[in-house]
Structure formats: C-alpha cells, structure tokens
Amino acid sequence: MKKTIARTIAAAALMGVALGLSGVAHAEVVGDPDGVAGYNVEQSYDDCALMSAADVVGQMTGNAPAEEDVINFAQNTPSVAQPGDMIYDQGQTDDDPNAGTIFKDLPIVLAHYGVKGQYVGGGNMDSLMGVLRDGGAVIVNLNAETIWNLDGDRTQADHALVVTGVDTDNGVVHLNDSGTDDGADEQVSIDTFTAAWQTSGNEMVVTS
C-alpha cells in the first residue's frame, strides 16, 4: 500500500517528547534508526513488502537492490506459501485487489540477495526487540490506516514496513516506511504500532 496524502501522525506529541528531553541524557533505543534511515526509498508501485526487503538487504549488506530489480525477481519467482502464484503481482491498475506481495515469501527474496530471513507468525514486542538488539532487521505486516492515522478499514493488514528501533522509555517505535515520501525514520507510539500490527496476527520476517 502507498499513501498518497500528507502524513497525519501526531508529530506534535512526539516533538513534545523530544523537547522534554532537552538537557537530559537520551534514553537508549533498541536498534539503530538513525544509522539505517538512509536505506528507506519511497515505493513507485504497490510493492511495499519488496521495498521493505530491499531496505533490509541494504541494512545487512550495505548494498540495497533497486526497486525494478527486486520486482523482476519476485514477479518471476513462484511462491512457496501459495503454490501456483508468483511472489509478486504488479497488478493491472493502482487499485487491483490482486496486486501485491505474498508476505510469507519474503525470506525467498532476502535469500536471493544473500540475506537469511525467517517468517514468524504471532510475534510480540519482546521478540521483535530481541532481533533488533542482536543486530538483526525486522519487516512487519500491519494496517496502514492506523499507522498513518487515516480514515478507512483499520481491521485488515494491508501494508509492510521495516521496524528500525524501539524506545520504550518514550513509548516510540521507529520505522522505515516506503509508503510515504517522508517515511525514513517515521515515528509512532508503541500503542499505535501494536494496534496496527495485531491486524496481521503479529506477522514479521526477521533476519538471523
């Protein structure tokens, strides 16, 4: 999914948190959101999961593949999770319901670029943070309307993005989000993130 209007996250509240830290030692953040923000690239198609995979390949290898290269691989590689389909269907129109990526097949995409990944169903914040603490990367499947604070169906997972850090002291999750033009180190509250993530049953793909 790609957002086509300005982000409406409660930035003012987050800014207030940041200003409140003035003159005080910064809380430790699990992950490295500043260090990996540069791997986020805005998506051109309905390929948020593939762009998240490209972001993670960049984090793990220092060399992120181009969007068209990842698309070419995924739309010509059979799905393991859904036999008979390809990993990615670009679709015929912007609102084609069949367009998109089979999330469970993202480890195949990562492996193509030399990165070992694993699909995890039913994750939680502790396991997600453990991956980041160990230097790994995390892609999650969640609801975009909740993350972007937009009207619409907030009950279905319809977007993938990369979690780059968690600040439990300030209640903030750091994200790389290809679905918006300012998605590098996008920040939302932990409550907002967990509400969006639970719509997929807390699916994630993590690197070893």
Write the layout of secondary structure elements.
Blueprint: H1 11-20, E1 30-31, H2 33-36, H3 48-61, H4 67-74, E2 88-89, E3 100-101, H5 106-112, E4 117-120, H6 125-133, E5 138-142, H7 144-148, E6 159-167, E7 172-176, E8 186-189, H8 190-197, E9 204-207
Antiparallel strand pairs: 1-6, 2-3, 4-9, 5-6, 5-9, 6-7, 7-8
Protein described:
The chain has 8 helices and 9 strands. Strands 1, 4, 5, 6, 7, 8 and 9 form a 7-stranded antiparallel beta sheet that branches. Strands 2-3 form a two-stranded antiparallel sheet. It has a single domain, classed as Cysteine proteinases (Cathepsin B, Chain A). It is an alpha+beta fold.
Quick tags:
208 residues; alpha+beta; Cathepsin B, Chain A; seven-stranded antiparallel β-sheet; two-stranded antiparallel sheet; 8 helices; 9 strands; 31% helix; disordered N terminus
